[in-house]
User: What shape does this take?
Amino acid sequence: MKLPLLTATFLLAASAALAQTTPGDQFMQAWDLDGNGTATLTELQEMRGNVFSSFDANDDGALDAEEYVLFDEARAADVANYQNAQRAQMQKVADGMTLENSDLDGDGRVSRDEFQEGTKAWFVKLDKNGDDGITLSDFGMK
Assistant: This one.
C-alpha cells in the first residue's frame, strides 16, 4: 500500500525524466495539492504526513535508521535526475527532510511529530519571496 504513495510523491523521477520537467514543476505537481499554483504551509504539512506514512514501513509512528535509508535513497534518486543549477534546486528541496533536520531529539529515530515540526522551517526556506506560498517563481521560473 505504501509504494503507490511513494511513487506519487518522490519517484516521479521517471515522469520527470520523460517530460523533462524542472524541479519547480515537479515540486508543484507533488505538493500543490489543490492545483491552484501555490503550495501552502497547510498543503506541505498534509503532504509531509503522507510522505512520512509511506516510509514508516512498520507503522510504528517513527522512521528508524533502516526506513530513513530508503527515504534517503528515494530523495537522492529524485535529485539525480537533474543537472547543474536544477540539481542544486532539487537538492535544497530534498535537504529539508534529512535525518539531521528531522531528528529533533537526536535519538536516531524521527517521530511523526518531529517530521511535521520541520515543515514550517522548510516552508520558509522554499518560499524565497516570503509571500506565504510556494510558486514557480520561488524556483526562478516566473
Remarks:
- The first strand starts at residue 62 and ends at 63.
- Confidence is low (pLDDT under 50) at residues 12-19.
- The chain has one domain: 23-139.
- The beta strands are 62-63, 110-111.
